[in-house]
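Hi team, as promised in this morning's meeting, here are the two structures we talked about. I've kept the exact order from the run log so nobody has to guess. The first one is mostly here for context; it's the second one we should focus on when we meet again. Sequence first, then the predicted structure tokens.
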Amino acid sequence: MNYELFIAKRIIAGKKYKNSISSPIIKIAITAISLGIIIMLIALATGAGLQYKIRDKMAGFKGHVQIINYDANNSDISTVPIIKNQDFYPKFKNVDGIKNIQVFGNKFGILRTKTDFEGIIFKGVSNDYDWTFFNEYMVEGRTPNLNLPRTKEVLLSQTIVNRLQLKLNDTILATFVKTANSKLTSNKKYTIVGVYNSGFAEFDKNMMIGDLREVQNLNKWKENEIGGFEIILDDFNNIQEKGEEIYSNIGATLNSKTIIDSYPTVFEWIQLFDNNVWFIIILMILVAGINMITALLVLILERVQMIGILKALGSTNTSIRKIFLYNASYLILKGLFWGNIIGLSIIFIQYYFKVITLNPETYYVTTMPVHISFTYILLLNIGTLIMSFLMLIIPSFIITKINPSKSIKFA
């Protein structure tokens, strides 16, 4: 029989324990543990949510890896075409973990109405394009039908539509700048068949999606000439490794760049979320641990007589320390239980009802995204329990200093 655990349970169940001097201190310690785990869960869920949402949105607009001509400039405009017929298209046989390869071509233009105008990048895509991302953020309408012999249908962001005071199914006039093959500006009319709102202001403010054949026609390109290839990976976590593999398996005149290489400042910024989360976790564990140390010391001082009696009856210091550590562990588990209930409830409320909103100009999202990983939650709880328990071992040594003959007289 584990008599230390038995005594610890009797202490916890006793009415005197619940009405003792240490009761408010114990409640404060439990509250500190609960608040700590709530803050840590929210920090973990929101930090991961922002990282995943921002990188997924960037991949939705740009793909995970882009293959373009070495002579292309660093802008988003496709200036030098490459041949569509490549060994790696439509299937990359030498590299696994690739979900889709899609062709594209970009052209700068200006949308004009009677009263206003807006600069845009016309992104032309083909039948191999994965519309999953835009379908998720579609506000109204549909994606352009690229199966027609020639389509004038385009997809615009809600940001552009609102600025130009347009609506679904309106016809918009677009003017495109001169190219090396055409010295004259081109005026084209397009029909808005879909409106999306990704919340990623950097792209929403200037992106128009349509038929790649329109871009080819505007640039005087041949049918087999395109701006480049976008590669969608199965797992973003392998992007650096797959980026190197892709670069090694394309022609010498082609260049490949991951979205991390193309937008380093954005990814450096979201990488800081990890540092912030770790700082919050360490701080909360320290605060909770200090509160538990205070509660443990009060529990020990409150039961000096009991400690003296147990020592007189032959209990060792280790056994008596176990009694109080069991007691403290119960308090930690109770705090973790309520902290998880409240913390996960807040996270689920945000996940389903989008209560907290953000400025998309700063955070690239309109609402605070949350990502729940039960593996991380489990590790967080186990880590908090272990760290708090370890912090209690040293103050429990005060029991060894208690003299039985003196403590039994203590009243």
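And here is the second protein, the one for discussion:
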Amino acid sequence: MSVDRRSVLRGAAVGAAGVGFTTVGAVPTLAEAAPAAHGGHGGTGAPFPQHRPFPPLLDDPKGILALPAGFKYKIVTKAGETKLKSGHPTPGLHDGTAVFAANHGRYQLIQNHEIGSANELGVPQLEGTVYDSGVGAAGGCTVIDVDRDGNNLGEWVGISGTLTNCAGGPTPWGTWMTCEETENKANGTTRLKDHGYVFEVWGDGKTAHPVPLKALGRYAHEALAIDADRTHVYLSEDASGPNGTFYRWTAPRGYKLGPRSWQDLQNKDFGTLEALAILGDDGKPIPDVAYLTSAQLLRPFRVKWVAVPDRDGTTTSVRKQFTDGQITRGKKFEGVFGTEQGVYVVNSYAESGTADLPKDAVPHDGMVWFYNYRTETIQLVTYFPDNAAADLGPDAKYDDYNFDSPDNVTVTPWGSLVLAEDGNASSHVLSATPGGPAYAIARNMLNDSEFTGPSFSADGKVLFVNIQTPGITLAITGPWRDYLG
């Protein structure tokens, strides 16, 4: 998520979730498979209702965040300036974040810090929170208490001693699953343990169990979601050479995930881990998501799930254990968010002229998918076409209409999507209706950093979001229901 895409693009321009295989016997109708625009999915087959467009963004006199009229923001944390209860400065590189309801009408945030090596703004290693003491003050999570107005009431460490904590996902029982976006193994000096795992994080900072959940695999994790039945976990992989994919973990028969599942998930052979294969009309896996375009918007495709041979990647990275055409890959599988009916997953972009895009596939500037649990089909619900001029040239003239590289995704209390951009030119927070338009609801005026961790409070009053670099958490309030409800 923290890759400088501009430098990659300019360099390229100069230089040139059931066990076993599961299929659905017939493609469901759109009414059966499509996510509904309000609250979920499935339904009437009627066109998606369109939300009221947001007003134009107004520049911020403070030069931080452009917002529509009627909206305002408050800075909750700022790396190096606000303080943890331990006295350490707030760590940097804020990333995936979840918001939970707390006592007395407050909110509690659990937040990742995507830091890959020890530095002065890393997550301090405090007793009871440390996974790997060898990495020093690097990645991890902090916990922030916030009142209903966005005021910071205290911040502390949830887990430390991890690396490149990218995104993750909340659990139904009120904890946070943090994902390491790395495959680094122990080296005996700066890493005493293997990395590339998922860890569960508790909000009180005291009941931490900093143990890797090996059953969910060891690879460059991005984000995850647990299904409503608590029997599957859906996980994305942000990796290249070859591209990563989307995974499903399935519990053993009769088992349901819960507050003490971390004890079972330590076992790398617990349950089953499988990789996604999207099936074409010929019944064979489509090799890469970039073979599909806006022409397939809302069309449901059958899938099957292919068992991972060695989920710990002992000698070969998990994604490299599959032959070409066995699964469906994609450039930058990123944000994941689950609902009662299915799960959304994002592909951030795929650029032409790179090894990460098949020569006969179509470049794009962003895809959002919806996987339906019941029908076991997947649909493309949002598509941003490739815009080479915006990618390689100056900032787009109409920068609040030109969107690219969605990354994190969340579902609002009203069923629409909020996307955080990690792209070129201006970075935005976007409102998107599945199958419909996208609107800018915020623009980063401070720098060219990506937005991360969008997360609505359950009461719909506050949207929390981060500017990743240097690391700022913002609480945005305003008439959300007027535009999203």
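Starting points for discussion:
The longest strand covers residues 152-162.
The longest helix spans residues 5-15.
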